[in-house]
């Protein structure tokens, strides 16, 4: 089911999807109930079933993109990881409950995907690494090496929140690893 079809199902009254929304907007729901309902919704938005685990759906979507596409797969078109979706849904729950109840009840954001830094609430994006460390070692951008900083603000490493690894550095890393084998 593609995202458009999922939205049409919401409008036409698919009860299993509405039950997930009811959990997300419920003040009485636990963090696990909200996370499960939200991840199930996100799974259906990305073409999976409500019971599909997002990490598996992410993997199968990536493999499908590689097998059928002529271009390099774009990470932004993949479903989020389970933990990233979980934190997103928890933060959404806080907003929905506060809007629904017009801030007449207090809900502690620190238990729902937020952290406090310098007296400001900051979203927790995830509690797991973006990718396995071996993969992060070979991801590179096309920046020119300039005292370990990115050459432009359009750097793909910077865009995804990683330290900049210029392609020449990666070539050297690969050569070193080959020599060690």
Q: How would you characterize this protein structure?
A:
With 181 residues, this protein is mainly alpha-helical. The chain has 2 domains: 3-123, no CATH class; 133-180, no CATH class. The chain is 51% helix and 4% strand. It is built from 8 helices and 2 strands. The protein has helices at 3-12, 15-24, 31-45, 54-68, 82-100, 133-138, 156-159, 167-180, and strands spanning 114-117, 120-123. The protein has a two-stranded antiparallel ribbon. Helix 3 packs across helix 5. 19% of the residues are buried.
Feature tags:
2 strands; two-stranded antiparallel sheet; globular; mainly alpha; 181 residues
Blueprint (SSEs and pairs):
Layout: H1 3-12, H2 15-24, H3 31-45, H4 54-68, H5 82-100, E1 114-117, E2 120-123, H6 133-138, H7 156-159, H8 167-180
Antiparallel strand pairs: 1-2
Structural class: mainly alpha
Which percent range fits the helix content?
Answer: 40-55%
Approximate strand percentage: under 5%
pLDDT averaged residue by residue: 77
Low-pLDDT segments, ≥5 res: 167-171, 173-178
Order of helices and strands: HHHHHEEHHH
* Main sheet summary: 2 strands, antiparallel
Q: List the quaternary state of the chains.
A: single chain
* Count of helix runs: 8
Globally, the shape reads globular
In total, the number of domains comes to 2
Number of strands: 2
As laid out across the biggest beta sheet, the strand order is 1-2
